[in-house]
Design goal:
The protein is mainly α and 104 residues long. It has helices at 21-32, 41-46, 49-55, 67-74, 87-98, and strands at 6-8, 36-38.
Length: 104
């Protein structure tokens, strides 16, 4: 028979789950293993809001995907708004005040 291993990530989704260098070493060991990782590191990263925000920056996905693929990928992401100081953050805060039920 063959050896099969599955590592299912119920946690380890953000840097708070890796408080020490040892935690990072364990993650690296898992990634280097032949185990099936669910979700794999690419899907896990894509689910992080930081990565989604970066990918949604105009022109980023267009460097790697055609127009139809860009729209397909964008359709899987939740709408993101920054609350950082500045025009974009101000616009997001105004959206929340204008529609507190979240219809934006």
């Amino acid at each position: 028979g063959r050896e099969v291993a599955i590592f299912y990530f119920r946690s380890m989704w953000n840097e708070d789950h890796y408080p020490t260098e040892e935690h990072w070493k364990v993650r690296l060991r898992i990634e280097k293993s032949l185990a099936v990782k669910v979700p794999n590191i690419r899907h896990q990263c894509l689910n992080l809001k930081y990565f989604q925000q970066a990918f949604l920056t105009p022109g980023v996905m267009e460097k790697y995907l055609n127009a139809d693929e860009v729209e397909l990928v964008k359709g899987t992401f939740a709408e993101l708004h920054t609350l950082s100081p500045g025009p974009e953050g101000d616009r997001a805060v105004q959206l929340a005040f204008d529609d507190p039920q979240g219809g934006y």
